[in-house]
Design goal:
The protein has 14 helices and nine strands. With 313 residues, the protein is α/β, with parallel strands linked by helices. The structure holds NADP nicotinamide-adenine-dinucleotide phosphate.
Length: 313
């Protein structure tokens, strides 16, 4: 690296460290993929690991974070006092939504209460991008918990940021299955347009938001700026394979039956079918995405993601 660019990097690092000298960023879900990615980005962008606290429920899983110099506090979304203790001293708290689906709304409202009690100034929440807040929307099975959590945050009086994440590209391999080049794309999303995005891009965007000064409250739409359909996915897979890959959109019932017959657990096929119905009804259309502006570059596209996943066949 040339001396000048080394200096620039050093100055940038000092800037972040000075800006945040008395500030602590606390991240939940830190042993998970999104939370862990956010922490990696914070450090890469110059924040001292000592200015980051990771809340983890599993001490062993948190060893890697400790080894990086990140503070680790044990806390569980089901244990109020552990969270209050873990959140104390946090200026900003990134609350990564829970991966437990039972009683999630109640559990997550509890996280918001603990943050309030611990004196957190600013809470950032990884919510879901959606078109409708209706309690009986096609994605109510997953969106209602997020909406209840957003409402609790808004009522808490803390400064807030909603990071409304579209679905991850990273779930595409589950949707497409291992034999997609033989079977074609089989998914009941009809011709619904979606704005899925790469989880790693979402993690980087969240880190940028955490490092920036924010006036007031914000809602960010974290989607790919351009939409695609599952027919587009099949077309791109055809290009990769150099042979036609078809797209079939069965009914949701046929889809669930086929997945269950293939050995998939019922909850998994139900979830994937639910997302397809949401896609078909336009819930995951990107709308006005904030992702390029938050990243300062174009996010990874679905074509680039598929190229990376399958390479040239
Ligand atoms: P992930 O890798 O499964 O990480 C989830 C994190 O939450 C893990 O660190 C987990 O801890 C932690 N956690 C779960 N229950 C907890 C509890 N009771 N107390 C404390 N921590 C708890 O998921 P991800 O890929 O990072 O995604 C983050 C969140 O986005 C998920 O939790 C889910 O709500 C949502 N999500 C979104 C999409 C999408 O397509 N947009 C897809 C899947 C999930 P452990 O490491 O100890 O398990």
């Amino acid at each position: 690296m040339k001396k000048n660019s080394r200096l620039a990097v050093h100055k940038k690092q000092q800037l972040f460290q000075n800006q945040n000298i008395k500030k602590m960023i606390t991240v939940t879900g830190a042993t998970g993929q999104l939370g862990g990615g956010v922490i990696d980005n914070l450090v890469k962008k110059g924040l001292a690991p000592s200015q980051i606290t990771a809340m983890a429920r599993n001490e062993e899983k948190a060893q890697a974070l400790k080894a990086k110099g990140v503070n680790v506090k044990l806390g569980n979304y089901n244990d109020h006092s552990s969270m209050v203790e873990a959140f104390k001293g946090a200026d900003k708290l990134l609350f990564v939504s829970s991966s437990e689906m039972q009683n999630r709304a109640q559990q997550q409202v509890g996280v918001v209460k603990a943050a309030q009690e611990a004196g957190v100034n600013h809470i950032l929440y990884t919510s879901i991008q959606r078109q409708s807040d209706s309690a009986d929307s096609s994605i109510a099975f997953v969106a209602n918990d997020h909406i209840a959590t957003e409402n609790a945050i808004k009522e808490s009086g803390m400064q807030y940021t909603m990071l409304r994440n579209n679905l991850y590209f990273d779930i595409l391999p589950w949707i497409l299955g291992e034999k997609v080049f033989e079977t074609g794309v089989f998914y009941p999303a009809q011709d619904g347009k979606v704005g899925f995005a790469l989880r790693a891009d979402m993690a980087e965007a969240a880190a940028n938001v955490l490092l920036a000064d924010q006036e007031g409250n914000k809602d960010y739409n974290i989607s790919s700026p351009s939409s695609f359909t599952f027919a587009d996915v099949a077309r791109h897979l055809s290009t990769i394979a150099g042979k036609p890959v078809s797209y079939f959109s069965p009914s949701a019932e046929e889809y669930i039956q086929a997945l269950t017959a293939g050995g998939a657990p019922k909850e998994v096929s139900g979830f994937l079918a639910g997302f397809a119905i949401g896609a078909a009804s336009g819930e995951f259309i990107p709308g006005d995405s904030d992702l390029p502006q938050l990243l300062g570059r174009e996010p990874i596209s679905y074509k680039a993601f598929l190229d990376g996943l399958y390479g040239q066949k």
